[in-house]
Amino acid sequence: MTVEKEDSSTTRACDYLQSMSRLSEEAKTHLEQALQADEPSEKDFHIRNVLQADFGPDVDFDD
């Protein structure tokens, strides 16, 4: 029996799905609103809210 090693893209996809499942309902709502928004500035607003809520104030988004 041969065990195949997961490739890095599969690992990243699994990590992404696990992190999404840990998002708060508020964060999920902001992401849904970002997807529905037409204005880039409104999309940016919602995405920044998610990042700041989940990663905290230590993240510098302007770099």
Automatic annotation (TrEMBL):
Q: What is this protein called?
A: Uncharacterized protein
